[in-house]
Amino acid sequence: MPQAHRPSESDLIDHARRAAYDTRRRRSLRACHRPALHERPRHPAPKDTGAFIPPTAARIENDMNLTDGARRCARKIMEETYRRNREGRTLAITVSYLGRALGKCRRTVQRYLRQLEEGGYVSIDVACGQRSRLCTGLLIRLLAPLFPRHHRDRWPGSPGNPGATQESLNQRFKNLVPRESWATRCMDGVFRALMKTDPLSGLPPIVLR
After folding, report:
1. What single string gives the DSSP state of each residue in the chain?
2. Cα dist. 205→103, 157, 198, 200, 208 in Å?
3. Structural domain boundaries in the chain
4. pTM of the predicted model, to two decimals?
5. 136 burial type by CB count under 10 A (0-12 exposed, 13-18 middle, 19+ buried)
6. I need a surface site. Which of 18, 42, 110, 175 has the fewest CB within 10 A?
7. 59-157+169-193 has which CATH code?
């Protein structure tokens, strides 16, 4: 009498995987066209302020190293710079302001700015107060890769009062520190506090032979 064929371990694993796949497939087909149980909350429509984004190079759209949030942040920076300082192409701003404008937290905005700086689209300096060593904001410089070729030298002029001053009376951004130097400067206090605890006291003495 011939013996019955016993399935091997690999056959059992394949059968289990196939059964799990069929279960997921049937569940997906049953639920793929159902409406969501909870609809996404809608925010009120923004006001029409007349602000617009100036022409921007398509390079930021084609750069795969940038996330969609970083591209949106770049466009918001272009909008604010075009409105505030069209000639200088520098923007004095804070991370908190960008976070409120984009609806993101500070850490997310800092990650966006880091991506733009690594891609060569902006350069960022940290502005510190004259009397304190605290950070009061950022000075963002727009670089050439962010502009289209026909606006790379300068933006077109805008109608305005020729006798009005171009400088703001609020001179908060005078002392500028490069971002790398500011990171080292912020770590100095932690290093001094660490050295006060004498971290090397627990090491064995060095014996010279």
Report:
1. -PPPPPP-HHHHHHHHHHHHHHHHHHHHHHHTTSPPSSPPPPPPPPP-----PPP--THHHH-TTS-HHHHHHHHHHHHHHHHH-TTT-EEEE-HHHHHHHHT--HHHHHHHHHHHHHTTSEEEEEEE-SSS-SEEEEEEEEPGGGS-GGGSS-PPP----TTS-SS-S-----EEEEHHHHHHHHHHHHHHHHHHT-GGGGSPPPPP-
2. 55, 70, 14, 10, 10
3. 59-157+169-193
4. 0.64
5. middle
6. 42
7. 1.10.10.10
Residue 178 φ/ψ, nearest 5 degrees = -60, 150
pLDDT in tens, 172-186: 555 677 777 777 777
Max CA separation in the chain (angstroms): 109
Look up residue 96 and give its two tokens. Answer: 């908190």
Contact call for residues 146 and 57 (beta carbons, < 8 A): yes
CB contact at 8 A, 88 and 155: no
Geometric angle at alpha carbon 170, from 107 and 130, rounded to 5°: 70
Q: Are 126 and 135 in contact (CB under 8 A)?
A: yes
Residue type for 76, please? K
